[in-house]
Amino acid sequence: MTIKQITDRIIERSRDTRAEYLAMVDAMRNAPPAPDRLSCSNWAHVVAAESEADKKAMPAGQGANIGIVTAYNDMLSAHQPFASYPNIIKLTARDMGATAQVAGGVPAMCDGVTQGQPGMELSLFSRDVIALATAVSLSHDVYDGVMCLGVCDKIVPGLVMGALQFGHLPVMFVPAGPMPSGIPNKEKALARQKFAAGEIDKAKLLESESASYHSAGTCTFYGTANTNQTLMEAMGLQLAGTSFVNPGTLLRTELTKESVRRLLDQTTKGANYRPMAEVVTEQSVVNAIVMMMATGGSTNLTLHLIAMAAAAGIQISWEDMDEVSRMTPLLARVYPNGQADVNHFEQAGGLAYVVYQLRRKGLLNEDVVNVMGEGLDAYTRKPELDGERVISWGQPVAESGDDTILSPIEAPFAPEGGMRTVTGNLGTGVVKISAVDEQYQVIEAPCKIFDTQEALKTAFDAGELGCDHVAVVRFQGPSANGMPELHKLTPYLGILQDRGHKVALVTDGRMSGASGKVLTAMHVTPEAKKGGLLAYLNDGDVVRINCHTGELEALVDGSELASRTPAVEPLTPNTLGRGLFEKMREVVGDSTHGASFIGKANERIGNSE
């Protein structure tokens, strides 16, 4: 199997749904321009707060109008820098004879704040809420191009899903960049384990955490937020080399201005019309999968990529991802797959080096268009700023600046990429093998059953987990409680592993993009609430996870399992807004279909297979 063969298979599988999507795009593209469609009353509302010059120019269609969709809030460190972006965008557009308006805002929650807390049960669903809010923001239909301001976990996927409903427009994603490096990630993880073991108090733990998460910008580990940035470049929706430029720098500001100039050139009023529907294709989606595997990206994207692709009528699966991973060497060691952070990764050569290496072995689709132009050459180069503040892209990054962080493709850190699917009578799950030492990638041990995260912590505190075991945390799937991340469990299981016990986790929930070290089969489908065999397991049943052979099995006779009464899910409280999502939990699709509650993508994918 080759990358081209996988891409061709996806093209064939998606033939009908992609054609339906492109027909929708064509219908919007062929509609009369906004000045012809909107009434005088419509336009009066659009321009009421604009300058006198813009009140005349905008209804006349004299210059392109950019719609800004922003996920700004000043609690989320990665999005706090976006406060100044609308003004920069507006002034740059004005210099180009164009205009820009904030079309709308979307919610942006921080998973770091809600880890282990009830609010985490809204986290995954917030992605679809963001998609809906993006569509509402753009529904005024007065824009020639779209700028999306977002970075973190569910926010970028939601923005992509929403913006794809306006695929006739060019779309540019503009990041904020990572905060400067704090304390080493290994030191942070050790402090968490010491706290879980009762060796340090809460004040010491807070001191450690605050030394890690310390300023504006994205968290510096290679979790979901930074994997999002990698994928936006791989899919061609973001300028090359913009992902990991720190906030508050001159280069960061000038890249935002350059994003405006490039976007305006790609509208119907520019010289190089390039709508989003022509950028997000089967080829570019496969490139995103390859980049995720080559860099050991977050397993959350195994959900989000399926949902994003489906929004463009493209049907991808975990099987596709597994096959791509098996043929893609691991080229990066960034925490949790190593000790470096994304600033060190960028200094060593960053995404430009990874793209350069992958192209050498023909592991990327070259027949793509993107916000830089055609093909992938620009994405092997980094942006540079001269004394006149002119942005250019330098020479291809052909050499690693640190071979402990970025390896050449002839000598990768591992011959295969970051993810593996495991399948058996317990269902199908995802494992992030790039973060788990090989000695821990296979386990066969009795299981211990928990229906909540709190129950596992209680058992740990009571000294009941000091043995080899597979912890099964069930009723954490999307239809049960919204599929929260279970990163809170990592320190406890990590302690047990460090004490010499063979341990693993099996769950129908998610794990944080920062999670690693402990073997985890996550996103298990079918989930316990929907009849999955996780609901039929008892304490002491032997469970096998084998990442090498792709097994996820309960070593229990099938007739014995069938004779059991399934466990009953715990009640999901309706506090903190969770009650508003009750209907979403009833209709949400399976994890294998992206765990989405909007559109018909899940039904279509299910029917096509």
UniProtKB/TrEMBL annotation:
Cellular component GO terms held in the UniProt record: cytosol
First-level EC class: lyase
GO biological process terms held by the UniProt record: D-gluconate metabolic process; Entner-Doudoroff pathway through 6-phosphogluconate
Domain Dihydroxy-acid/6-phosphogluconate dehydratase C-terminal: 405-595
Coiled-coil boundaries: none
InterPro entries reported in the protein's UniProt record: 6-phosphgluc_deHydtase (IPR004786), Dihydro-acid_dehy_C (IPR042096), DiOHA_6PGluconate_deHydtase_CS (IPR020558), ILV_EDD_C (IPR056740), ILV_EDD_N (IPR000581), IlvD/EDD_N (IPR037237)
Domain Dihydroxy-acid/6-phosphogluconate dehydratase N-terminal: 65-377
Superkingdom of source: Bacteria
Keywords of the record: 4Fe-4S, Carbohydrate metabolism, Gluconate utilization, Iron, Iron-sulfur, Lyase, Metal-binding
EC number: 4.2.1.12
SUPFAM superfamilies found in the cross-reference section: IlvD/EDD N-terminal domain-like (SSF143975), LeuD/IlvD-like (SSF52016)
PROSITE patterns linked: ILVD_EDD_1, ILVD_EDD_2
Gene Ontology molecular-function annotations: 4 iron, 4 sulfur cluster binding; metal ion binding; phosphogluconate dehydratase activity
Pfam family, one: ILV_EDD_C
Entry keyword Heme: no
Keyword Iron: yes
Family classification: Belongs to the IlvD/Edd family.
Name this polypeptide is given: Phosphogluconate dehydratase
Species, as recorded: Arenicella chitinivorans
Gene this chain is encoded by: edd
